[in-house]
Amino acid sequence: MDNQSRRNTITKWHPPDVEYHKINFDGSVIGISAVVGFIIRYHNGHPLVPGARKLGHNTITVAEALIAKDALQLAKSRNLRKIKIEGDSKIVIEAILRKCNVLWRIRAIIEDLKWLASSFESISWNHIYREANFVAYAITSYGHGLENLHVWVGCTPLVVSNALLFDFRGLGYCLDPILHHRPMQLRPLSEHSSQLSDEK
Q1: Using the 8-state DSSP alphabet, how is residue 132 labeled?
Q2: d(CA 174, CA 106)
Q3: Cα–Cα distance between 91 and 112 in angstroms, integer?
Q4: Which residue of 10, 38, 138, 152 is 20 to 30 Å from 161, comparing CA positions?
Q5: What does the pLDDT look like over 90-121, one tens digit per residue?
Q6: Which residues, listed in sequence order, are joined to residue 123 by a DSSP beta bridge?
Q7: How confident is the model at residue 144 (pLDDT cuts 50, 70, 90)?
Q8: 155-191 residues labelled b (16+ CB within 10 A) or e (exposed)
Q9: Do 4 and 171 touch, CB atoms closer than 8 A?
Q10: In this structure, which topology does domain 17-155 adopt according to CATH?
């Protein structure tokens, strides 16, 4: 695949099968402060519950492993039985899938995640590009002011609602693989993007 074709690759969030719920999680570190977020969604893309919090001094890998654990604990507490879980942390996902050596910093968290995973009837893990994880990315931005885990039930912050709207309409983004390890840079494929930007 040439560079132009790779830049024009479309990446977007995909809904799970009808009987499943999907979890997306994300994290970021600004300075030495880590913030994390997740969202659990129905098969139709509607949010069941998003959550976010600040973790303070931490690495991005530890932060993302911890928020994945938070999300699974919440899913278990709500008696969800079939889960698909996605994140853009390749290290965390591959550690769960035993595709790489587990870093000592996250070893105990990974064991906790495996134990939690065993309580579900069905669970699958998938590494995705950050651009397909942008709703979780939007939620994460709310973690800066939250010392403890905060979840939204029956509502979502405006910026998160705007991000969800793209998914509801089945819109995708052009993925530039050269940029996908840097802060998110999205190029909307629809004129709807300018309308949503005006609402923020």
Answers
A1: G
A2: 32
A3: 16
A4: 10
A5: 999 999 998 888 888 899 999 999 999 999 99
A6: 83
A7: confident
A8: ebeebbebbbbbbeeebbbbbbeeeeeeebebeeeee
A9: no
A10: Nucleotidyltransferase; domain 5 (3.30.420)
Show the tokens assigned to 97: 């899938």
Task: Give the C-alpha separation, 79 to 121, whole Å.
Answer: 10
Q: Which amino acid is at 34?
A: A
- In angstroms, rounded to a whole number, what is the distance separating the alpha carbons of residues 97 and 90? 10
Q: Is 42 exposed, middle or buried (0-12, 13-18, 19+ CB in 10 A)?
A: middle
Counted residue by residue, the chain has a size of 200
Q: Are 12 and 174 in contact (CB under 8 A)?
A: no
* CA pair distance 37, 141, nearest whole angstrom: 8
63/162 Cα distance (integer angstroms): 25
Going by C-alpha positions, the residue among 16, 54, 43, 15 that lies closest to residue 139 is 54
- pLDDT of 173 over the 50 cut: yes
- CA torsion through residues 44, 122, 11, 35, sign: positive
CA distances from 144 to 30, 37, 51, 62 (A): 10, 10, 12, 17
Q: Across-strand partners of 102?
A: none
Residue 9 confidence class, pLDDT cut points 50, 70, 90: low
Please state, as a whole number, how many other Cβ atoms lie within 10 Å of the Cβ of residue 92: 29
